[in-house]
Amino acid sequence: MVLVEDSGREPVEFSVVHRLRNDLQVGLEGAPQSGNLFPVVNWRILEAGPNTPAVVVGTSSAWPSSKVEGNAVFVTAAQLLAPGVSGSVSLSYGLDEKKWQVPASVRTHIAPNVEGTLVFDGDQFHPLVTYRLEDLSFSFILLNVKDPTISVSWTF
To answer: Does 72 map to a domain?
Structure first.
């Protein structure tokens, strides 16, 4: 949920994802105001090793990008960089905009149950702090480093 008006974004978006196997998730992302629905698929085709990153292919909305709308397909490599620090880099193609992006992120543990992440969507930075409980996580996100946003995730 974006907490400011006139951000140029949907005020509320949602996703429902189901883990079919340890390496495969499927679901839907949507925006009630516009009525848009997008498929979500995350398939880990290579598990991370000491010297090799995990590789994931899939599709989802182009969120949080403010430059690309609609659905995107991607391949992502993710690796533990140091104890408590991980990073990822993706090659993403926006199907509606016909635009290539190179998103990336770095995540670090700040305290027990608290993580900080810096997401780069290919154009803008989006810092976030996440607090995790058993089945719930709450994230405070600054979209484009300016628009405060709250995300709530529930695992069931």
So the answer is: yes
